[in-house]
Write a structure and sequence with these properties.
Layout (H helix, E strand, L loop, with lengths): L2 H13 L15 H14 L2 H11 L4 H13 L8 H14 L3 H13 L6 H7 L5 H11 L6 H10 L5 H8 L3
Helix pairs in contact: 1-2, 2-4, 3-4, 4-6, 5-6, 6-8, 7-8, 8-10, 9-10
Length: about 170
């Protein structure tokens, strides 16, 4: 079975579950199940899903914080009803979380939300010690082509020591 077929089967199965039953799949050992559940929660996009994501951000478990940030980055797509509330939470993760993977997902989520108000926070994170975070910052900043600050930061990141960072920064061209 291909990964594509597996993803489709998982997605179809998760669609049968109500919102209150989806969180149990966020801790599944299989990454495809976890991500499928997170995507299903994102698409539901209501108050319970927002509250769930917020509670996950407070977890001592890195994986919970990652999934919480991931959910907030596209919660209620395409309307994004919780953008205003999500942006400061994601900025805090980007600035302060101890796990680079959480900071990286927070940066990506800010890009998905097209949070122009976060450009300065993203630029500060462009100096993160983790190349994954810097790559995510670059992928977020390319969403703001009209911002001279974002373009200047992307120009700097295009000369980063990490090939991944250079790749994402180069996407702005």
């Amino acid at each position: 079975m291909t990964n594509s077929a597996l993803h489709t089967l998982i997605w179809q199965a998760l669609e049968l579950y109500s919102v209150d039953l989806l969180p149990q799949f966020l801790t599944d050992k299989n990454v495809h199940v976890r991500m499928g559940a997170a995507r299903a929660i994102q698409l539901k996009g209501g108050e319970p899903e927002f509250e769930l994501a917020c509670s996950m951000l407070k977890s001592s478990t890195r994986l919970d914080r990652e999934l919480g940030a991931f959910i907030l980055g596209q919660l209620g797509t395409p309307v994004l009803p919780y953008k205003k509330e999500s942006v400061p939470l994601l900025e805090h993760l980007l600035e302060a979380d101890r796990a680079a993977s959480v900071r990286a997902i927070a940066a990506t989520a800010l890009g998905h939300l097209r949070a122009r108000e976060s450009i300065d926070t993203l630029i500060l994170a462009a100096d993160d010690s983790s190349p994954d975070v810097r790559s995510s910052v670059a992928s977020a900043l390319i969403r703001f082509p009209k911002s001279s600050k974002a373009r200047a930061c992307l120009n700097r990141l295009s000369r980063d020591e990490s090939p991944s960072v250079r790749y994402w920064a180069g996407e702005a061209d």
